[in-house]
Design brief:
15% helix; 4-stranded antiparallel beta sheet; Immunoglobulin-like
C-alpha cells in the first residue's frame, strides 16, 4: 500500500509529464500583488511586455497602486529562463512638484531567477512613468526592455 501512495502522490504532482519542484512551485505562486504587498492592485493597462529587438517576449513589468497609502509599485517578472539567474531591472519615476521635479526608484538584480521587485514611490496626485528590463542568457542571448510609458497613471 505504501508504494501505491507514493505513485499517487507523484502522479498528483505531475504537470505536463514533469514533476513540480518546490522552488518552481513557490516561484509560480508569486504574483505582482503579492510582491508589492497588501492593498496594491494593478492599474488599468499597467502591464507591459519586456521584448528583445526581435520582438521576443522575455517577461512583463507591472505597475500597481495602493489607494490607501498613495504609493505606486513596479515589479518585473521573467517568462523565459525561469530558475536561471539573469539580470533584471524595474524602474519607476514619479513627477513631483515643479516643472522638472522627479523622484525615481530603481532596483536591479544580477542574479534573479523569477522576478524582481518591489520598487515603490509615493505618487498620490502625481503622474508616473515606468519600465523593466530582462537579460536573456539562453541560446539566443539578448536584452529585452519594455518601453518607457509616457507620463500617465496620475493618482
Amino acid at each position: 500500500m505504501r508504494g501505491s501512495t507514493t505513485i499517487l502522490l507523484a502522479a498528483a504532482l505531475s504537470i505536463g509529464g514533469g514533476l513540480v519542484t518546490p522552488a518552481y512551485a513557490a516561484a509560480s505562486a508569486a504574483t505582482p500583488e503579492r510582491v508589492c504587498g497588501s492593498g496594491f492592485a494593478r492599474v488599468a493597462h499597467g502591464k507591459q511586455a519586456v521584448r528583445t529587438p526581435s520582438k521576443r517576449v522575455l517577461g512583463y513589468v507591472y505597475l500597481l497602486y495602493n489607494r490607501r497609502t498613495g504609493y505606486n509599485c513596479v515589479t518585473t517578472f521573467k517568462t523565459s529562463n525561469l530558475g536561471v539567474r539573469t539580470f533584471v531591472m524595474a524602474t519607476i519615476t514619479t513627477q513631483t512638484r515643479g516643472a522638472n521635479g522627479r523622484a525615481s526608484g530603481e532596483n536591479e538584480g544580477r542574479s534573479v531567477k523569477h522576478y524582481l521587485g518591489p520598487v515603490k514611490t509615493y505618487g498620490k496626485g502625481r503622474c508616473v512613468s515606468y519600465m523593466g528590463s530582462i537579460q536573456d542568457d539562453g541560446p539566443r542571448a539578448a536584452v529585452g526592455k519594455s518601453r518607457w510609458k509616457s507620463w500617465g497613471r496620475c493618482g
